[in-house]
Amino acid sequence: MRFLLVVLALRLLYLAQLHASPLGGFLLGDLRIYHERAQQILAGDLVGSAPPFYGSTLYPYLLAAIDAAAGARPVAAQLVQVLVGALTCWLIWRLGVEFFEGRRALVAAVIAGLYGPFVFAEGQILMISWSVFAVVAALLAAARYARTGRAGTALLCGLACGLGASDKPNLLVLAATIPFGWWLAGRTARHPSPELAPPSAGMERSGAGTLLRGLLALGAGIAAVLLPVMARNASATRGDFLISASSGVNLAIGNGPRSDGTFREPWSDRAHETLRLYDLGEGSVHFASLALGRALSAREADDYWREETLAYVAQHPLAALRLLGRKILLLVNHAEIPNVLDFGFFRSQFAALRMFPAGFWLVGPLGLVGAGLAIARRDRRTLAPALFLVLYGASVALLFVCDRFRLPAAPVLILFAADTLVALYDGLRERRWALVRPLLAGLVPLAVITGLPLVHYNHGRDHWMVAQALEAQGQPEAAIAAYRAALAEDPSMGEVWNNQARLLIRLGRYPEAEESLRRAVEVAPGLAYPHQGLADLMRQKALADRGHARESIDEAMQEYRRALEIDPSLVDAWLSLARLHYDRGETVEARDLLLKGKALNSGVPRFDDILRDIGGAAQGAARIRR
Q1: Are 362 and 432 in contact (CB under 8 A)?
Q2: Average pLDDT over the chain, rounded to whole?
Q3: What's the confidence (pLDDT) of residue 104?
Q4: Helices 587-600, 571-583: crossing angle, 10 deg rounding
Q5: What is the pLDDT confidence band of residue 625, given thresholds at 50, 70 and 90?
Q6: Bridge-partner residues for 115, per DSSP?
Q7: Cβ–Cβ contacts within 10 Å for residue 576, how many?
Q8: How far apart are CA 533 and CA 563, in angstroms?
Q9: Cα(135)–Cα(162) distance, rounded to whole angstroms?
Q10: Is 115 helix (H, G, I), strand (E, B) or coil?
């Protein structure tokens, strides 16, 4: 218990350091969407209308409950999740006692308490820490039911499985393996393990009746959680979705022609549009609509990505198999592959997070060897969790690998890692080489595979995130420093050169802004915004330097045209280019531009307002200038 208090204190220290930094209250991606949905729920919009694209439908309701009690501050939810994380460590200890014995349980609790990815997850506005808790709670309740036969524990097991599946639907494989574990618990072991408790009295007394009762209670618990979730999703989307609106695009991310096994959007080569569409859900519909040449619904877009990916896999089976092999290697690799936030970057920024040294580098090889031992020994209590690891790992490998997808498997790996460590220690101490040799034979190759340098991430995008946070908090000079740190890591990020230039213009540092925009155009010519920004800057330069006005205006017009070639939806670029032509007395050219811009951007009244008066009247010129 004292150790858990120390673990809790270190977790709180990490939260304190996080909130003393610009990143403490800065939310992006999924984190921002969950927070905003929680505020909508508190405002009375209980059902909403958005498709269930981002993982958990249930999580915003948990956030809303926390916010209602403690205020709409990210730190409140993070504090609750830290407490859930500490409780998870205690439950892992209890589960270790159920599966093994006291020493192994204690080692498992220590590893769990010092496991850095758990702490990192608890500090994010994501449901993943609740899913980890759900896995441990479900396994503990399942073990208790196998021992006692009490229906209440089976119901709790179902509730925990439902909680996990509401965030990660593939966690339903846990519910599928639990009845297998109950069936095994009622059988006499052929090769009993001295570490395991005697066969469960509850199962042995009642046999098939207890198993059936457990199945019914398990199903009732899962339904109690998932049916309301499915009802909300069906209501919000008029029956289009019950669980998730992102299965198609997730399949495409992990198995398409541009996939590398990690999070890489299928449209990642569309530089300008990717910059405009931060939201994965919006991007999914937008690019599917572009591919088919018509506006699609979220349902149609989801079907499009699924069908396109399955067709690609069918046409390129060898490439698909190679990619699957790579994903299996990534799944057991030491790297924590980011989806939004990078564990490695946060660890480099916060000393408290470095106080949690345990990672997959330790848990992976030891846990996989322990799971292999469970399968080889056919242990009644641990064979079902080992099967869960296999099935859950397969479900992740079918999509793509990232840290938050892998994390629900970590508690089970930690338990098996503790078993392996204690067995190795006992074998070495007692010189039982017949036990030590197979352990080392498994550990050595797995350690090599786990340590392979399969992925490399620079922290350019992470520094960019810090710059955005600083800019949002009104610290422009610090934001400029963060932008420069990002560009020092990765000078090829045209978006960052562009954002830095925008901030420099706001600060009146025009020469630096021009240099930054020219670098953006150089490294990312497919981005429209730097061309438009450079054109705007050249117009200002023409006003300030009349002697070179003609050259500056010519360059501005050229850059506007380049921007519009990339993105014809830039209304301000159409109007600015038309204004420059009008100021030169080229009324026909200005009018043609406005008509073309109007045709490509229907429903924008500014084109009609200016076209109405552009027939050479001074009023038209004034309207263009505005």
Answers
A1: no
A2: 90
A3: 95
A4: 170
A5: low
A6: 358
A7: 21
A8: 9
A9: 10
A10: strand
Which two tokens mark 420?
Answer: 């392996």
Structure tokens at 430: 């007692």
**Span of 37-46, 271-280, 285-294 with lowest mean pLDDT:** 271-280
Place of tokens 């786990």: 450
CA distances from 322 to 316, 455, 485 (A): 10, 16, 36
Around Cβ 602, how many Cβ atoms within 10 Å? 7
Q: Which amino acid is at 510?
A: Y
Single pTM value for the model: 0.90
Mapped onto helix, strand or coil, the DSSP state of residue 278 is: coil
Instruction: Report the greatest alpha carbon distance in the chain.
Output: 99
Asked if residue 548 has pLDDT above 70, the reply is no
H/E run at residue 610? helix 605-613
Token code pair at residue 447: 């350690």
Higher pLDDT, 217 or 611: 217
For 1-15, the pLDDT digits (tens) are 688 899 999 999 999
Answer for the pair 442, 369: CB distance below 8 angstroms, yes or no.
Answer: yes
Torsion of CA 463, 464, 468, 471, to 10 degrees: 70
**Radius of gyration of the chain from Cα atoms?**
29
Alpha helices in 196-352 (DSSP H): 201-206, 208-236, 247-255, 271-276, 280-292, 298-315, 317-331, 343-349
Interatomic CA distance for residues 4 and 454, integer angstroms = 34
**C-alpha closest to that of 362 among 293, 443, 296, 294:** 443
How distant, in Å, are the alpha carbons of 115, 301, 352, 460, 613 from that of 495?
Answer: 35, 27, 32, 11, 37
What is the 3-state composition of the chain as percent helix, strand, coil, each rounded to the nearest 5? 75, 0, 25
Closest to 398 measured CA to CA, from 173, 620, 243, 234: 173
pLDDT in tens, 284-297: 998 999 899 999 99
Q: Helix 510-523 vs helix 494-506: angle between axes, to the nearest 10 degrees? A: 170
- Count helices and strands (H / E) in the chain: 32, 0
* pLDDT tens readout for residues 97-152: 999 999 999 999 999 999 999 999 999 999 999 999 999 999 999 999 998 999 99
The owner of tokens 């420069």 is 484
CA distance 101 to 195: 6
Q: Which of 412, 458, 401 is nearest to 115 (CA)?
A: 412
195 vs 82, more confident? 82
99-130 per-residue burial string, b: 16 or more CB within 10 A, e: under 16: bbbebbbbbbbbbbbbbbbbbbbbbbbbbbbb
Cα→Cα distances 624→177, 395, 536, 585, 598, Å: 68, 57, 15, 13, 14
Domain ranges of the chain: 2-242+336-450
